[in-house]
Amino acid sequence: MERKMYLKIRENFLWGQKGSERKLALISWEKLCRPKSAGGVGLRDLNAFNKALLAKLCWLLITNPNSFVATILKAKSYPRSNIWDAMVPNNSSYTWRSILSVRELLQSGTRWVIGNESVVADWRTSEEDSWDEKALNVLLTEQEFVAIKNCTLAESSQDDFLSWKYKKIGEFAVRSAYHYEMQSKYGTIGSSDLENHRWLWNKIWKAEAPEKVKNLVRRAISNGLTTMVNLADRGINVHRLCPRCGEGYETVLHMMLSCRESTILWHLSPIRLELNDWPPDLFEWCYTFARSCLIKKSWETTMMFMWKVWCMGNIWVFEKKKVDPVLACQRTMNYLGEFEMAAVREDAPKPAAIQIIQKWQPPERSLDKLNTDATMNAEEKVGLGMVIRNDVGDVLISAGRPICGIIPAIQAEAEAVLFGLKYAYEAGLRSLEVETDCLNFADLLQSRARMRTPTQVIVNDIFDIARSFDFCCFRFASRKCNNVAHNLAKKAIHLDQMIL
Ligand SMILES: [Zn+2]
Question: What residues does the Reverse transcriptase zinc-binding domain cover (predicted)?
Answer without folding.
Answer: 174-266
